[in-house]
Amino acid sequence: MQSPVSKPIPLPNAPEVTRSSDLLADFLRLKISANTKRNYSKAIADFCRRTYDREVSERLLSQFLSLQQSEAVYQVLHYRQLLIDAKLAPSTINVRLSALKSFVDYARQVEQCSFNLADVTCLKVESYSDTTGIAVAGFREMLQIPDRSTIKGIRDYAILRLLWDNALRRNEICSLDVGDFDKSGRLSILGKGKIQKSQVDLSPATTIAISQWLVARDNYRSSDPLFTSLDRRSKGHRLDGSTIYRLVREFSEAAGIDKIVSPHRIRHSAITAYLDASNGNIRAAQGLSRHANLNTLNCYDDNRHKYQAQATNTLADLI
After folding, report:
1. What is the spatial distance between Cα 281 and Cα 302, in angstroms, rounded to a whole number?
2. Do residues 162 and 247 lie in contact, with contact meaning Cβ atoms separated by under 8 Å?
């Protein structure tokens, strides 16, 4: 199939937006995760630039939302093809399409447009086959890299322990506040797609590591970020996901690991390592991973048997 031309698509004139507030801002306020807000805002801005060669604005979005069904679908399919031609990853394309479709659904609900994008399908994404991650010995080597005689090394060591012992996602680590940490060995985390924090048990080694970081850091309040930047330019600010990604890459390279190691690969590695060490204890691995599809019975059973705590302490003993 021949790709559509990449020149900007003209839009019809549309009446001024009758709502007093910014529709896009209203839509983004409904999103729970800061990461989702950021990705959706970026996606809609990208749609405006690639499709119309203009920056996102309330009037431009109003013109788009005034289109008829067939023209709206054509323009979004055109945008999808532009993304394919730019050789973006299918998962990235799907996030941008999902953002646009979600925005249009919201606009329909508040009677700001009459079309839908149900006919615009996302791309098929090949399932990730390499879930083995890195070997236990490789992560053990990574854990030796941070210089724990320095405040940065103490901080980085604590982060690595959370990535492994509790298989935390980097965004879950970034969102932690000091008050989320209980020195008795518990941590309140905001899981992926959740609106309420839940508690996880920490291994003794991770509890000590976080406690040592707080002692080294000194002078903090309960509402402050648990992990902060130590760079001169952003010192004291909440540590972001890109920084955690970079330090993981640096430590893995220093440890001589030939795979590209990311925080999420460590999560895969930890879950796989636990399954190997426990002879396939799926129930405890589910408690460890906190996947969204756990049913209520599993949650109750996990709390009753402390499956997640068992998994975390087994992982801690491995390294």
Report:
1. 12
2. no
Q: List, for residues 210-233, the tens digit of each pLDDT value.
A: 999 999 998 899 999 999 999 888
Known catalytic residue: 235? no
Tell me which of 169, 170, 268, 290 is the catalytic residue. Answer: 169
Task: Look up 78 and say whether it is catalytic.
Answer: no
pTM: 0.60
**The two three-digit tokens of residue 143, written as one number:** 């854990």
Residue length of the chain = 319
Q: Annotated catalytic, 291?
A: yes
Taking the C-alpha atoms of residue 265 and residue 271, their distance in angstroms, rounded to an integer, is: 10
